[in-house]
Amino acid sequence: MEASDEAVKVLLIRPHLNKTVTTIKKLMFGEPLGLECVSAILKEQGHEVLLVDFLAESKRNLRKYIKSFKPDVVGFTSQCSDISNVLYLAEKTKKINHKITVIVGGIQVTITPEAYFSRYVDYVVKTTTRENMKALMEQIEKDTDEEIMGVFSKKRQFQSTISSCENEYVKPDRDAAKKYRHKYKYAGYQPYATIQTSYGCRNHCSFCIRRKLEGPGLKERPIEDVVAEIEELKEDYVMICDSDFLINEKRLIRFLDLLEERKIKKTYICYGSVNSILEKEYLFKRLSENGVKAVIVGLESFTDAFLKEYNKSANLDDNYKAVRILKKNGIATWGTFILHPDFSKEDFKTFKKYLKFLKPELISFTPLVPHFLTPLYKQYKDRLIYPRDDYEKWSFGDVIIYPSKMSLRRYYFEVLKLGIPANFNWCTIKYCFTTFPVKRNIGLMFGFDQILKVYIKNIFNPKKLPE
């Protein structure tokens, strides 16, 4: 593009997912928060923005949007499960109009920017700030090629000597996704909004990459700003996506004070660690009264040995106490658990018994994923079923590590035997039908059904062991 005083027209797109990817979209499908933040920055700087969510659209007509909106720039966000789709859409964009500048950003770019170094991509944005987005837009307008912090450029062969910056928090432009907002859901809560109030993590779980992405220190937004943003939300249901919203006692009390002062009535789901729950038992009655109705807790396993391997700071007794504190105060436990590749058949049986004893309201399982940003990658490198660059298989749905005590087919079968009673037990059924409308429960069951189909397919057609 030549230098111009006119605004740059930017089409922002969240791509659809491949049908082959194991996903929980039917259960949890949130707004494109990253794109909304980028939209806010670009509009602040005077540019014209159109946000399109192909995850929420059935027709996904890229050509239609390019022809009607006539963008100068098309920007894609990306997760591990949609890299091939992003590259496909980038190529298609260039074929429709080769003059369009293509930009790719998102969480997967932060992790593996090299996955997007393509002749159809002009810029790969690893981190986003107001400053580097301004520099990028000016570079596109003036057709220059200087280095920009956090940005890889095709003009520079995707090479950079500038160390990357941290993402800057920007209040999301929620109006950008206005036409899709009624579709966003989290389990049985729909429509819902997502908000992040802090960045970083104090924990050192061996399997988690969030600490690597957001930093080891805890960076908290002023809680007054958070409550003001919540008050503006049109949605009644709010997902607080911090790694542990319950961590700071003083901040949590101030949050409750402000909700009560302003008489804000919404329903909240948040992440919380076992230790944070145990440390603040006295606060949960008040949290419940102010709308906190579910806490997503990383319970992870059924033995202290596995918890120790995962570097969890809580033990089984702590887990039990935390679940009981939540139950006592009318707050549901949405427990997350890890499926270890070294489980035996007896381990699966013990796991099933433990879940009956613990009785979390909702349960989700994730195969142990030895991400290359964690120490687990080196530990399990020789047992990987899929190579590191088979990104779509690293979406926390497929088994990544060859089991050590049974065949892969048998392992999937044991997961299926564990998953069906875990998700269709009386405690979960009663919770769902007393919490969510019937229509939402049908959607939940259909979502679980889709996941079960994937595991059944893998039982009959597992990836063969190498010779």
Would you write up a description of this structure?
The structure is a single chain. This protein has helices at 33-44, 62-69, 83-96, 107-111, 130-142, 210-214, 223-232, 249-261, 274-279, 284-289, 304-309, 316-328, 345-358, 376-380, 408-423, 426-435, 438-460, and strands at 9-14, 28-29, 48-53, 73-77, 101-105, 123-125, 151-153, 185-186, 192-195, 198-199, 219-220, 237-240, 267-271, 292-300, 332-339, 362-367. By secondary structure, it is α/β, with parallel strands linked by helices. Helix 3 links the parallel strand 4 (73-77) and strand 5 (101-105).
Q: Give the N-to-C terminal Cα separation.
A: 54 Å
Range of helix content = 25-40%
Estimated structural class: alpha/beta
Query: Which percent range describes the beta-strand content?
Result: 15-25%
Instruction: Count the DSSP helices.
Output: 17
Strand order of the largest sheet: 3-1-4-5-6-7
Report the average pLDDT across residues.
Answer: 90
| Strands, count | 16
